[in-house]
Amino acid sequence: MPELYDYIFNEKNWVLRFNMxxxxxxxxxxxxxxxxxxxxxxxKIIEEKKTARYQELLNDFVGTYIxxxxxxxxxxxxxxxxxxxxxxxxxxxAIKIILNFAENLKGESREKAISLFYEWKLLEKLxxxxxxxxxxxxxxAIHTCCSLQIWELSHLIEPFLNxxxxxVRQQALLYFIHRSPEDPLNFLxxxxxxxxxxxxxxxxxxxxxxxxGDIPDFSPYxxxxxxxxxxxxxxxxxxxxxxxxxxxxxxxxxxxxENLRQYAIECLIELQEPAALGxxxxxxxxxxxxxxxxxxxxxxxxxxxxxxxxxxxxISQCDWINRLKYYKNSKILTPEIISFS
Amino acid sequence: xNIDKIADxxxxxxxxxxxxxxxxxxxTAFFSFLEIRDYKxxxxxxxxxxxxQSSNLPKISILAPAYNEANNVVNxxxxxxxxxxxxxxxxxxxxxxxxxxxxKLIENFDLEPTAFLGNPALETKxxxxxxNSKNLAFKNLKVIDKINGGKADSLNAGINYxxxxxxxxxxxxxxxxxxxxxxxxxxxxxxxxxxxASGGVIRVANSCKVEDGRIVEVKLPDSFLxxxxxxxxxxxxxxxxxxxxxxxxxxxxxxxxxIFDKKTAIEAGGYNTKTVGEDMELLVRxxxxxxxxxxxxxxxxxxDPLCWTEVPDKWRILHRQRNRWTRGTVExxxxxxxxxxxxxxxxxxxxxxxxxxxxEWMAPIIELIGIIYFIFLIVFDAVxxxxxxxxxxxxxxxxxxxxxxxxxxxxxxxxxxKKPKYILKLITTVLLxxxxxxxxxxxxxxxxxxxxxxxxxxxxxxxxxxxSQNTD
Amino acid sequence: MKRILIIEDNPMVVKSLQFKLxxxxxxxxxxxxxxxxxxxLEDQEYDLIIxxxxxxxxxxxxxxxxxxxxxxxxxxxxLSTSKQEDIILEAFNLGVQDFITKPFSPNELSLRVKRxxxxxx
Lengths: 341, 472, 121
Known about the structure:
The complex is a heterotrimer.
Chain A (H helix, E strand, L loop, with lengths): L1 H8 L4 H54 L6 H11 L3 H17 L3 H12 L2 H9 L4 H13 L6 H4 L8 H14 L17 H14 L16 H13 L6 H4 L8 H14 L5 H7 L5 H14 L2 H11 L4 H11 L6 E2 L3
Chain B lengths: L2 H39 L6 H6 L6 E7 L6 H8 L7 E8 L5 H9 L1 E4 L1 E2 L9 E7 L7 E6 L4 H11 L4 E5 L4 E2 L3 H10 L4 E11 L4 E3 L2 E4 L6 H23 L10 E5 H7 L9 H15 L4 E13 L5 H21 L10 H34 L5 H29 L6 H17 L1 H17 L18
Parallel strand pairs in B: 1-2, 1-7, 2-6, 9-13
Antiparallel strand pairs in B: 3-5, 5-6, 7-12, 8-13, 9-12, 10-11
Chain C lengths: L2 E5 L3 H13 L3 E5 L2 H10 L4 E5 L7 H11 L5 E6 L3 H10 L3 E5 L3 H15 L1
Parallel strand pairs in C: 1-2, 1-3, 3-4, 4-5
Keywords (chain B): Glycosyltransferase, Membrane, Transferase, Transmembrane, Transmembrane helix
Family (chain B): Belongs to the glycosyltransferase 2 family.
Organism (chain B): Christiangramia antarctica
């Protein structure tokens, strides 16, 4: 080795020296990476075993606590915390296990599981996670708060409604939907930038499937400052069939924003509101491509073949996608149709 | 100007090129790592799939060109019909097959011809007929029969006559994961800006166990050639495209599996039928189109393995494929040469295109020049074997390092190859690849360049075994 | 003592069921996936089977079909989430006794188990 070292560093030609040093560095890095690969594989196996052992321990303890009514657990809880919940790894698994119990059980058993969370002073851990600089830790903590219905930390979670990180924002939205049963969407007032399609799907899903309260009237959100919230309100009015809100949707078909016009028409289609037919036919010629497409859809669902004939003269000026849509829905024969003999 | 002087300058140039390429690779490794780490951390706390099923996801039209696929088309189509996605349809474009591809489709899926609209947006070779199914079970299937025009031409015909807002272009013999569409559509849902395309990682299906059109067991390919391509794909996807996606400079979404916004594709002009690299050329053109229209947009990339394809396991066929890829790269770079170093195109013009030009395209040429230079030195008896030895060692160790890092990324992210013996086999392949595989690829690339200059420009016949034969 | 077999891949759910039913005085055995469940059914007889509808390797419905073929008299209670209405319906068509949706109340489960066992004897 010393000879090799001498050989390299006494080389006069610096290019050669540089290349030799690089070779050695690369070789060391290769060995390091190979070790990393093997270690990664082995580490995964060891980690999995360790986690499984720990989960078993916790499952046993929590299960016993929930289902054993006679014993006095206070001392045992404290001793468990001091012995087994010292580090981050252990605390994270404990939270995960309690979450699992809380998500799958209901009634008294669930309450007991959550009480264990407080007894083990895991709230402090959550608080620390919410203040962490790492987005994935924040997101996970918010999710836990939501599942365990920990509302006392909502002041810490509220700023995340406008987080630039998708995952964090998503969890914050979810949290606030569950936070107020009477008004699940009141967090929308605190949103400062547009909600994405994914977030809309997400919120809609929660309202349809996991939300247990009464479905509120969504029309107030049609007056929101953000267009995406207005669009979302329209979608959700359609989804929940709040046809009494049709009069509130109608004005949007003449809004200056193209997206609002488009979604308003889609909403009216879902609500089966034919009142806009005349106006839409009248506006067809001057409309943008996307809105024209939606108008054709409107006529095919709520109009008649006469209505299709009324706009036929404008179709040749439309783009291909709209011409194709028109033909498919109206089935009106034009010279452009190619059929089999 | 004597030999020594020339040798000196040449050395400096090669050294500079080598340094830049090394720094380039290390940078992409760094960004790829961040991207993979972030992707792993997306916990998906809620089970997302019921969520995605029950909602108003964008509708997708799958476009699958077929040429002489009578053996496979029915089976492949059956697996496409069982994908997990709320609303989608499938358009098979029979590109003037000489065998009975169309007949097989008509018989098996109860097809009948329908009338259709002429004068479509994108010009294609003549469409002879469009077929729908009489059977309600296949109501989301459409077959377009047209005169042969090539893959790009077929895809354009598919774009013309499909109904949905997103198009998914696939190779009909690729195997998709059941949830592939759900995962690949995700970038379109995070629409802070308009998303024009989304691509994923392509995996090597050779030797894998396939049942009912799905991969049931992942195995490392038996042949060295296919294994070398596994390593190559790791480098390309896990270290290349991930980094580019993070920098928003992705130039290529694989033609094997990608989703595009239909309207933008039509407005940008559809696929270019005059190039063999139509997948890369389309994305570059779409990006350029959006940039020129000054519309904010983004391109998504999903690192999950979603699509499996059979790679060539014969040298001759591999040569044809790489030859074609080189010609495609050159054609795309030439068509869009205006973008090179042009700040108007931001990352695309200042980083991505130059990278493709100097590294993806030029690297084999520089290597060839290096070999010629070496021969030149031998002729003039000017070879310093010590220098040569050290140079070869440094190049070899760097190549191994890069590949081994790609293996580590695979281990860190998806570990598709679970058996421990696979890792050892892969490491062995990594050690042999620069010696046995790389020179061949380099030669195929050079030949591609020669063919472009001499004017040869076809796809060439690609024969495929058919994946259904890979069952134990 | 009545013997109950639980086929469920979520260890927490298994633990909860085990705790509750053992306290109620039953002998409880568990399997973590469909394949293991089938094996255990081949080896021994049980007075009641509680199975999840979403299991790895074999679907809950396939498992129920198998049980009904081989141990037609054994009552079955299925565990599912409330989103799986069509699968629950299919399970009922195959002859299961009862179903419990998650999240579940252990007390309610106890009652249903008791009822199912009584309905058979």
